[in-house]
Amino acid sequence: MSAKSVNVRTWADQEAAHSSVQTWVPCDPEKCFDYVADFSRHSEWTTNPVEITPIHDDPKGGVGARFQAVGHQAGKDWPSELEVTVYDRPSAFEFTATGGPIGTPEDDPHRHTFTFTPENGGTRIVLVRKDPLPPDWSRAKRSLTPLIVRLTLGIRKRTIANLGQRLIDATDAAP
Fold it and tell me: What's the pLDDT tens digit per position in 140-166?
């Protein structure tokens, strides 16, 4: 799937950077939800390498499930902790992340919200991200947020294009 088939919107305010990335795939919402909600498969479609392991013995997840992640970006390892905050199969899945290249305020982690909507015999997948700005960022750094969000646009598009292609490949391979 080409990144050209992905629609994206970005915006920023004084508190956070935001993005909304969407695509359509010829798969049912349950399949899309199950694939995204399975953290053991995220490395199959993320743009940068990531290793995710459950913190507890329940790798299946559900609200409250926690995972340790190490993302590899710009030549560095970025550890973070993930927590599932919405698990509404097949329509919505959300997780938060602490850590990574840009820290977050104590009670305001990065938020990744996926929605899966039936559309034209397939599913519209929308990923909305909210990346809170660190509280210690100066006014000058905060003024650069719109530019930073625009610079990450390509990564966002490729990630959702990868996700869509993996879902299509899995559908094509099914008996």
Answer: 877 888 877 787 788 889 999 999 999
Give per-residue pLDDT as tens, 13-59: 878 888 999 999 999 999 999 999 999 999 999 988 999 999 976 65
Residue linked to tokens 């909210």? 130
**Cα gap 62→138, rounded to integer Å:** 37
Residue 172 to residue 94: CA distance in whole angstroms: 27
CA distance 128 to 142: 20
**How many residues are given for the chain?**
175
Token pair for 172: 């094509």
What does the alpha-carbon distance between residue 27 and residue 39 come to, in Å, rounded to a whole number?
Answer: 19
DSSP string, 3-29: GGG-EEEEEE-SSEEEEEEEEEESS-H
| pTM higher than 0.70 | yes
In whole angstroms, what is the distance from residue 26 CA to residue 45 CA? 17
Q: Is 8 exposed, middle or buried (0-12, 13-18, 19+ CB in 10 A)?
A: middle
